[in-house]
Amino acid sequence: MVLSKAVHSDDAALHCTFASRYVRAPLPRFKLPEESIPKEAAYQVINDELMLDGNPRLNLASFVNTWMEPECDKLMMAAVSKNYVDMDVYPVTTEFQDRCVNMIAHLFNAPIGTDETAMGVGTVGSSEAIMLAGLAFKRKWQNKRKAEGKPYDKPNIVTGANVQVCWEKFARYFEVELKEVKLKEGYYIMDPEKAVNMVDENTICVAAILGSTLTGEFEDVEKLNELLTQKNKEIGWDVPIHVDAASGGFIAPFLYKDLVWDFRLPLVKSINVSGHKYGLVYPGVGWVVWRSKEDLPDELIFHINYLGIDQPTFTLNFSKGSSQIIAQYYQFIRLGFEGYKDIMENCMGNAKVLREGIEQTGCFNIVSKEVGVPLVAFALKDSTKYTVYNISENLRQFGWIVPAYTMPADAQNIAVLRIVVREDFSRSIAERLLSDIQKVLGELEEHYEHVTKVIATQVDIQTGGAGTHKSEHEIEEGMIASWKKEVNRKKRSGVC
User: Which regions form coiled coils (predicted)?
Assistant: First the structure.
């Protein structure tokens, strides 16, 4: 949900151009018009304003999928009016969701038999999936504490400072303390040793990230499982692990089969993954899968019958569309394991080309790792002339949306640019982007030299000649300070 505030002006009406063939009076912006207008005019008015939006294909800030095959588009449009919650009316769609849950559970090595039904649910993105998983951990911990006669009013979750904002939302909305492992320069993911040291009797779970939003790195879930198992054994606890695989869940199984991060680890009780990221479906669909039925408390599952049959449901959103679920099933059966593998390998190949091209400029340090999500995060070697924010803003002139942001505590002094490589980011697009980055660097260098000359002339006039009142070092420092003041822009966070 976006919170917005209407800005009123003397002329608060929307004037039509092409639509003036149908509409002669201005249209109000902030209240319903008194009369209806022709459909052609309504379309034209809305379409004209939408032209000012960014191009999703060039939005390199986002992990969200922006292209699907036409056949899948047709399936989605055919189902756009289906409300998924009406399971009795749309039993095939419900069956598709169940098939997807089971396919994901087997992909993540859940300990279930071939003919067994996995425990999981489709959600509106990974945000809802994380909320549901967190609620299950909280309720299970509370039930255990109640049975032991211990306080159960101060639950906490241990995770890294690099978590997505949805974890902060869960903590705030459902009154759970979020204990964050701080980062440090050169290490931008959660340290498993520090995480385990922060665990206490009120910890409902430790959340690990498979594919950090900031750098795309995979956290060491296997090491976390080992250390936490040892601590649980020593103290007599049973603190579990949740894996936030929103970005990496549909990458690791296909590219890093020997990487142990999923249900093969005994303490991993639930995993979420985004279908609308590298699951290759349009937004918004996510999935959460539990290790077993015992890991999802029964009291969280609601049973309704006023839609025709008894329907068990565990969701924060009651009504939701069926289109994305159908699209996810299409992708699973259309691509199969080898199809997903080919696409992920291609994405990694294009990310490698991009990374090498950025390194060849000589201006950047690569912050992201080669193993992880196909993205490139990079920082300027020298920020005295211009900053990553200037580069990000100047790339907009070519249509590129490349976020610039600072790292979380305690690495907030590091500012980076990040480019996410998706299926629709081809080799030719990568080469075009590299060319435009070179152009921007050249423009910023020229601008720096121009401003430097102007400032030097002003300093020379003010001092009555070089060195008259100030030393050479003082003049240089003054020039740098003036330049920074000139080019420094308000920092914007583009983290997705």
Answer: none
